[in-house]
Design brief:
This protein is of the alpha+beta class. It has 6 helices and 23 strands. It starts with 11 loop residues before the first strand and ends with a helix.
């Protein structure tokens, strides 16, 4: 096992697990519908120039950005979530399949044969209610995704400022939840079981900023046995429950992805370890491991996520908590991962951080398995077998 102690390094690798099996594998072609990577923003111009039709989208975390040349119709998301470690990084979504772009009104979409990456920003006009603004945005994005042939939502990201501020007698997060619930309950087929994984984070400024991943084929939504389903939270947290699943699994021919929602120090439906960033971090790791293990149990355990790729985003309310959180993650992160730290506000005042992630695993044919055992694409393990034990000690 090797660990990189890279205190200056921006994107850091977590603990690397040794390969669990010693069985040789035959790698399949690395075709993928999407992959995400953190790229230094100074490299974006070059990237867009060299692979213009293979970029699905870009998520930037810098407030003072210059215009990107060569971006054309590619959806670019700008979030005022100051990065807390190292040189500015953008999250870049690429595809090995050619990408086509579509813009209708303010919804910008990039599509390939399997998935659609979409983004929209809606200014909140003075006097407008956030629930109405959210309802309208969700209505339109659902309509658009369906019209383009991608009716299945896999993952939603929601950002807006002053998430904990009360206006008109209701916290803005609760207003947001009400609008989102209304639109999805009316229009998402199979609601609430088909709800996608999601993030909702408060930015320091900006419009209501939503981006999402939708697909031609449905994903599998996964819940966390340690947590109450968010869409079944009691009304204590707001008149309408938060509409999301804890994770979405997307299996495909050459790869599998687990899209993990913003995960907080919530057990059951209760926020735990109030005022204690270290303990919240450990609780989140416990939640993540439980979720990943659960996904593995549901969908088969013949995969090694230990040498797959994982991108994590850690949202932190108070920048001064970064060193403590980072020390824990460097020591205990159960898989090989790149971690980006951003300053943002969680939807409950007492939550100090939240971690989301995208795990990816390329298929590889295990030559000890027969071909008949290989429909494998639906039976992919989420983590190396070592991780649950390790995290139990956490
Ligand atoms: C929680 O577990 C923490 O409203 O979309 C995490 C991820 C949270 C997504 C959302 C909220 C959302 O309830 C909060």
């Amino acid at each position: 096992m090797s660990r990189t102690k890279s205190n200056q390094c921006v994107v850091e690798r977590g603990v690397e697990w040794p390969s669990v099996t010693s069985t040789p594998s035959i790698p399949l072609p690395t075709a993928h519908a999407f992959r995400t990577e953190y790229v230094e923003t100074t490299r974006l111009d070059t990237l867009l120039k060299t692979s213009p039709s293979h970029v699905l989208g870009i998520v930037r975390h810098d407030r003072n950005h210059g215009e990107l040349r060569g971006a054309g119709a590619c959806p670019i998301v700008y979030l005022d979530l100051p990065q807390l470690n190292g040189p500015p990084l953008a999250e870049v979504w690429t595809s090995t399949q050619p990408v086509t772009y579509h813009q209708a009104e303010d919804i910008r979409c990039a599509m390939n044969d399997e998935v659609l990456f979409g983004a929209l920003q809606v200014e909140e006009r003075p006097g407008a209610q956030l629930d109405t603004v959210t309802y309208d945005a969700y209505r339109r994005l659902l309509l658009q995704a369906r019209a383009l042939g991608y009716p299945h939502l896999l993952r939603m990201w929601n950002y807006f400022p002053h998430i904990n501020r009360v206006s008109n007698g209701l916290e803005r997060y609760q207003q947001f939840c009400a609008g989102r619930y209304q639109a999805l309950a009316e229009d998402l087929s199979g609601f609430p079981r088909t709800l996608p994984a999601a993030t909702a984070i408060g930015t320091l400024s900006g419009p209501l900023n939503i981006h999402f991943l939708a697909a031609r084929l449905p994903g599998t939504h996964v819940e966390n046995p340690r947590q109450v389903r968010a869409y079944e939270y009691p009304s204590l947290y707001g008149p309408r429950s938060p509409s999301f699943a804890r994770a979405t699994l997307r299996p495909s021919l050459y790869e599998a992805n687990l899209l993990i929602s913003g995960t907080a120090s919530v057990v059951g439906h209760i926020s735990v370890h109030i005022g204690e960033p270290q303990k919240q971090t450990l609780e989140i790791l416990h939640n993540l491991t439980t979720l990943i293990t659960h996904a593995e149990q549901l969908h088969g355990a013949d995969r090694r996520w230990g040498n797959g790729h994982a991108l994590l985003k850690v949202y932190i309310r108070h920048p001064e908590h970064v060193p403590a959180v980072r020390t824990i993650l460097q020591e205990r992160m159960p898989f090989h991962s790149r971690v980006l730290y951003l300053q943002g506000e969680m939807c409950r005042r007492e939550l100090l951080l939240e971690i989301e992630g995208i795990l990816g695993q390329e298929s590889s044919i295990d030559i000890n398995r027969t071909v008949s055992q290989l429909p494998g694409r639906h039976q992919q393990s989420m983590v190396s077998q070592h991780e649950p034990d390790r995290l139990k000690r956490a």
